[in-house]
Amino acid sequence: MPRATTRGRAAARTAEPKPAKPPAKREAEAAPMTYAGSVRWLEERVNVEAMRPARVSSDAFKLDRMRALLANLDNPHQAIKTVHVAGSKGKGSVCEMLASCLGACGYTVGLFTSPHLVDVRERVRLAGDPITQYSFAQAMNRVREAAERVPAKHGVPTYFELLSALALRFFADKAVDIAVVEVGLGGRLDSTNVITPEVSAITTIQLEHTQLLGDTVEKIALEKAGIMKPGVTTITVPQEDAVLDTLRAHAAEVGATLAVLGQDIEYSWRFVAAHDMGPHARVSVSTARTEYEHLAVPLLGEHQAANCGVALAILDRLRERGFEAPERDVAAGLAATPNNGRLEEILDSPRIIVDGAHTPTSIKALVQSVGAHIRYDSMVVIFGCAADKDVDGMLTEIARGADKVIFTKAADSARAADPADLERRFTELSGKMAQRTDTLKEAINTAARAVGREDLICITGSFHLAGEAKKLVQQMLERKRTGAGA
After folding, report:
1. Domain span holding position 245
2. Is the domain of 237 the same as that of 385?
3. What's the CA gap between 400 and 378, in Å, rounded?
4. What is the pLDDT of residue 54?
């Protein structure tokens, strides 16, 4: 298939009255926004990610508002090919691996993910690079204008809706060959669910966002299944029976095809140790069209094997749709996958890694992955999470893997749990002592004083905390580089 390329004189005084000036507010609204201004304007919108679930109005999720917004932008989602990925955990990893593989195969790829770690531009990437400040401002000015023309009956577009619209318009303007789109929350009512993709995928489903999505895995599965479209294949990983039953029933209802990794798609994986890569997982996916054999999983942890399998299965279905994805190029793409916020080392002395794990299962996988892949004598865990998460479940898993724990909170999260409450609950659950600090910077400094050369600092519990840690370390390194002092 064709592949797109990326590309004063003053007026004389008279007795006539001067024309009335338009209201100052309208002048301000009409003025083009700079990048900084566009970010400020965006951050003034309703942001569900930063709100406690109990405060989220049902009006925050309205697909008719998203469709009206996109109609004012000339429906960019109808001009591009897409892949749509939902799930409770692993969807971001699938998107990263898939986009990297497609890029290595020669395609111009748009990638829309959430949340960001340091810079909002991370959410909208073209050929692996974040959208530029100039392009972000240009696109957001256009989106703002479109948002002002959304009928009042639909309500005011939210932070995530505006970003989704910006991404789709930007990708269409750049004529991407394909865009990989990650669902923000749930699926059925998520603002990304206006697209009709070439392929969709649903990763592991767990209890999450129960106040918004439902209090059983079946209810949550039904929300995720809402991304299924008639005639479109949806790929999923092995799930518990109740989840698979729900997904199968909904696929039959809407006329979609559900393909389960390891059941409908031949899939296997193994854990190996190699001199050049150390311990890692390798996966194989085989179909009538494709033979991806023993490809190295680029992200650490056994749990990433199934995510890699999903990415490969998506590539297989894209081949059916006319895309080329040779094994050699796919292997190169996997190897180039970024590990942002996924067991990512952000400093080597002291050694600091960050991970966005925010469920008991993902914290457990994190602890296991650190043990399998990283050599260390003692591990200090800096932990902070949202108050509405399964806090006790995460604390139980941390107690099993951490030698020392410091509780703190992200500075930019209104949903953050109180460190004092985390410390109390941890001690009650585990019988172990811990520390707490009011800020992440204090926590990092405390941990740095406590570790030796062979020890490890792991910062986890939320992407907000991981992102703040990256920003703090980047600022520290920049001060050292410029000699600006501590």
Report:
1. 35-335
2. no
3. 13
4. 65
